[in-house]
Design brief:
Number of domains: 2
Strand content: 15-25%
Order of helices and strands: EHEHEHEHEHHHEHHEEHEEEHE
Strand order of the largest sheet: 2-1-3-4-5
Largest sheet: 5 strands, parallel
Oligomer: single chain
CATH class of the largest domain: Alpha Beta
CATH topology of the largest domain: Alpha-Beta Plaits
CATH superfamily of the largest domain: Reverse transcriptase/Diguanylate cyclase domain
């Protein structure tokens, strides 16, 4: 019999990683622990857990095997993977082999743990209502990307604009392409170049140019939807990876950002500055490789710059 507020924790003997579940128990959540696959099988046969937590093990793949077993035998049970650091191979295995729903990266506070477990239980209840069951993979993926992005370290962040840097761009773009290839989750790539930035630097000085970059970074961050990511691509170049299957909708989204930029007047050391940008966007297509996608966005950006700047051009419209 299913119990939506029943949490099963898989923690093999010898794992030093500790987590305090006391706050959850105080909220009335029934928690049991398992140290081997036999115990798990017996527990889940008696009653299905609404969510499970597995601890990462560096020496073997038992935790991945456990999550894969849950995925196959109890697909509605929400799978939570607890790790200490972000590693590309580790995350790929967790996603590709076990289709985890949530990534939990320690250290974290009790409130955040409680919020995540509650979200997992809500999704389990939704999936186990027969009349409302549907493919929830898109929502699961959004949650996963949200938690991965939340714990990006300073090594993945541009110090000036506080946006993700080029390293993060490469990682998240690869993951977005993988999710598209595996699950048909569409996205668009937007490449942005600030117009006449060299002239602005020469006129007002590099500190003023840095202030323009900072302001633009804040504008991008304030406009990002939960499922989108913004990056400083390099110098005065920026990028957006935006969820969605229609380039026209993304173009409207970027145009709203451009309208805000056009209206923005920056006062720096008693000098007033304004700026615009040009952008090229492309929606992922089945025929595109990673390099094809970047070249297409860059080609659209070139058309925007060549034809007057201060505009967005979609590759599909060229």
């Amino acid at each position: 019999m299913a119990q939506t507020r029943y949490l099963l924790v898989y923690k093999p003997d010898g794992i030093e990683q500790e987590i305090d579940f006391e706050i959850l128990q105080k909220q009335g959540i029934d928690i049991e622990y398992a140290s081997n696959m036999k115990s798990i099988t017996d527990m889940m046969r008696k009653r299905e857990a609404g969510a499970v937590v597995a601890f990462y093990e560096s020496e073997d793949k038992n935790s991945i095997d456990f999550l894969r077993y849950i995925m196959r035998q109890h697909p509605n049970t929400q799978r939570i993977y607890l790790i200490k650091r972000l590693e590309k191979n580790l995350i790929e295995n967790a996603i590709n082999k076990a289709h985890i729903n949530y990534l939990l990266i320690s250290p974290f506070d009790g409130d955040y743990l409680s919020e995540l477990i509650d979200k997992a239980f809500r999704r389990y209840r939704f999936l186990t209502q027969p009349m409302k069951r549907y493919d929830d993979l898109a929502g699961i993926t959004v949650d996963l990307l949200e938690h991965v992005n939340k714990y990006k370290t300073e090594a993945n962040t541009d110090t000036l604009t506080k946006l993700f840097n080029r390293r993060s761009f490469d990682q998240i773009l690869d993951k977005a392409i993988s999710l598209y290839q595996e699950n048909n989750l569409y996205f668009s790539l937007v490449l942005i170049d600030l117009d006449n930035f060299k002239k602005l630097n020469d006129t007002f000085g590099h500190p003023a140019g840095d202030e323009v970059l900072r302001v633009f970074g804040r504008i991008l961050q304030n406009n990002m939807r939960q499922e989108d990511s913004a990056f400083r691509y390099g110098g005065e170049e920026f990028a957006i990876i935006a969820s969605g299957d229609k380039a026209q909708n993304i173009k409207l989204f970027v145009n709203r950002i451009l309208s805000q930029v056009r209206e923005k007047v920056i006062v720096f050391e008693e000098k007033k500055m304004s700026f615009t940008f040009s952008a090229g966007l492309v929606c992922i297509q089945k025929s595109f490789s990673r390099d094809d996608l970047i070249r297409a966005a860059d080609k659209a950006l070139y058309h925007a710059k060549k034809n007057g700047k201060n505009q967005i051009v979609a590759y599909q419209d060229i």
